[in-house]
Amino acid sequence: MGRRIINRHPGRGSALFWGALPFLVLVVLYVTFSALRLAENPNDKLLPAFASIADAIGRMALEPDKRSGDVLLWADTAASLSRLGLGLAGATLLGLTGGIAIGLVPYARAGLAPVVAVLSMIPPMAVLPILFIVFGLDELSKVVLIVIGVAPFLIRDLALKVAEIPSELVIKAQTLGASTWQIVTRVVLPQVVPKLADAVRLSLGPAWLFLISAEAIAAQDGLGYRIFLVRRYLAMDVILPYVAWITVLAFLMDWALRRFNRSVFPWLARGAS
Amino acid sequence: MSRVTVHELWKEYGDQVVLERVNLDIPSGEFCAMVGPSGCGKTTFLRLLLAMERPTRGRILVDGRPLPPEPGPDRGVVFQRYSAYPHLTVLGNVVLGLEFQRAPLLARLFGAARRRAEDEAMAVVDAVGLSHARDKYPAELSGGMQQRLSIAQALVRKPKVLMMDEPFGALDPGTKAQMYELVQGLWRDERMTVFMVTHDLKEGFTLGTRVLAFDKTRHDPDEPGAYGATVTFNLPLDEKAERAEIVARLPALAASDADE
Questions:
Q1: Interface probe, candidates A176, A187, A196, A261, chain B, greatest B C-beta count within 10 A
Q2: Does the beta carbon of B68 lie under 8 angstroms from any beta carbon of chain A?
Q3: Per DSSP, what are the bridge partners of residue A50?
Q4: Boundaries of CATH 3.40.50.300 in chain B?
């Protein structure tokens, strides 16, 4: 009788193999069906061969565009990342201040918690038209959409995390003579910033969603703009690498935030008891 | 000097009376062990003394003055757990109290001021026997060491009254015995008034110079919350040498009270 499957663990190499397997399967499936379709119709655009994708990447990432003179992939990346960065920075700042205020100060909780709870229920995409009307069609409305979409979640999550700090620690600080400000800076902040970083990691997905939606609707550049632009020509050879590139960017941001937590807050990992 | 007077203290939560008719006069420097069954208001009394909560009726006076309405550096506390800051090292945890005091805006000290504060904090860390662990984080310490750290933290601001809520409840017997010695030594040196909640009668009589027993004197079987607990026994342990010293200081206290 073998062991139960819940007690059988893959070794290092075996785990690597099992992790790589789904990717391999996807690639093989793609290559097979692409070849099948291209054999039938050499002009098929739906599943382009890797060679034509590589061509498109070369065109987008290495050669300047004939009309604008920019190298499109990098110009799009810069535009999208600056929007995403500004939006996430604004949302993080709001999340930090709002969350700490609601979690720590009873009057702020009484005054802000209900309105944040209601605002967080508004589907952000539904207010996008309002943002376009109020802030115009350029950068600001896209940044504000990300802020509106992500900040309520960050505020509520952080307020919970602040409230989860054992009251003993806050009382103790008071018996050591700490003012509210000192409690915020020395007791609350160091304990919730790692949790804020985790919450931001979780909201990377929604943030990208809002960014690409806004770019799809009204923009002159950006990764989302490009995808929706070339969709008109069924240019899968551009869309696929763009999607892959967006995934890589999102993954790198997630990885960087995880690294940030581990390197800035060594006590998180030490003596896990 | 920190004489604690409690006058006709009541604490109610809605319909439920937790404490009723508590009257106490604790001379400065007394070590009060508070014993009694679970849920009879010992911890509530401690919270009232800390000013984490306000009494429903009655007054608490420290040296004849009403208790401030919120926790402050005159009253230190050691909780059963969650007492140390997980993001600071042992030394950082103890220095924190001095940083709160000396750096109102940043709560951080730098340069010579920091070194001076660290020296002071190290003296306290030494006193509780943690100098070998000064750079460790609380999660790396055993339960007994964490309680030593918590005590060091509370002592660095030299509180007049020290409150401990079952500080040794989670420790093994060997560690407990060490902690008794430590706490008694520190209490003698600092001459604080100590209030300690304990489940353990023996611990109360070992450490205290006065034992306060909390219990309910009246019961209503139909409505368990109708009556609260009170101090049923207030037992100064006069046979203890330490207690004699406290009593010896008493007349002076009484005289200064009469002047007011």
A1: A176
A2: no
A3: none
A4: 4-83+160-259
Q: What is the CA radius of gyration of chain A?
A: 24
Question: Which positions in chain B touch A187 (Cβ < 8 Å)?
Answer: 85
Q: Under CATH, which number does the domain A60-261 receive?
A: 1.10.3720.10
Report, as an integer, the average pLDDT of A9-25. Answer: 94
- Strands across the sheet with B16-26, in order? B65-66, B57-62, B4-13, B16-26, B229-236, B210-216, B31-35, B193-197, B161-165, B75-78
CB environment A7-44: b (16+ within 10 A), e (fewer): eeeeeeeeeeeeeeeeeeeeeeeeeeebeebbeeeeeb
Distance from the Cα of B80 to chain A's closest Cα (Å) equals 9
Least Cα distance to A150 among A77, A93, A82, A79 occurs for A93
Instruction: Say if CB A168 and CB B83 are below 8 A apart.
Output: yes
Give the Cα separation of B129 and B142 in Å (integer). 13
User: Per-residue pLDDT averaged across B203-218, rounded?
Assistant: 87
> Mapped to the 3 state alphabet, what secondary structure does B146-163 carry?
HHHHHHHHHHCCCCCEEE
What residues in B contact A181, CB-CB < 8 Å? 105, 107
CB-CB under 8 Å, A185 with B107: yes
pLDDT digits (tens, 9 = 90+) for A101-136: 999 999 999 999 999 999 999 999 999 999 999 998
The CATH code that applies to domain B4-83+160-259 is 3.40.50.300
For chain A, give every domain's residue range. 12-41, 60-261
- pLDDT value of residue A39: 92
Contact status of B255 with chain A (Cβ, < 8 Å): no
> What CA–CA distance (Å, rounded) separates A13 from A31?
26
Q: What is the pTM of this model?
A: 0.85
Tell me which chain B residues have a C-beta less than 8 angstroms from the C-beta of A193. Answer: none
DSSP B26: E
Average pLDDT of the residues in A217-242: 91
Instruction: Kindly report, residue by residue over B224-236, the tens digit of the pLDDT.
Output: 777 888 888 887 8
Q: Strand B75-78 to strand B229-236: parallel, antiparallel, or no bridges (unpaired)?
A: unpaired
Chain A contact for B69, CB < 8 A? Answer: no
**Closest alpha carbon to A192 in A159, A221, A215:** A159
Interface contacts A/B by beta carbons within 8 Å:
86
Q: Which residues of A touch B107 (CB under 8 A)?
A: 178, 181-182, 185-186
pLDDT digits 0-9 by tens, A172-213: 999 999 999 999 999 999 999 999 999 999 999 999 999 999
Please state, rounded to an integer, the average pLDDT across all residues of chain B.
85
3-state secondary structure (DSSP) of residue B194? strand
Band (pLDDT 50/70/90 cuts) for residue B254 is: very low
What integer best gives the mean pLDDT of chain A? 91
Is A267's CB within 8 Å of B137's CB?
A: yes
Q: In this complex, is the C-beta atom of B120 within 8 Å of any C-beta atom belonging to chain A?
A: no
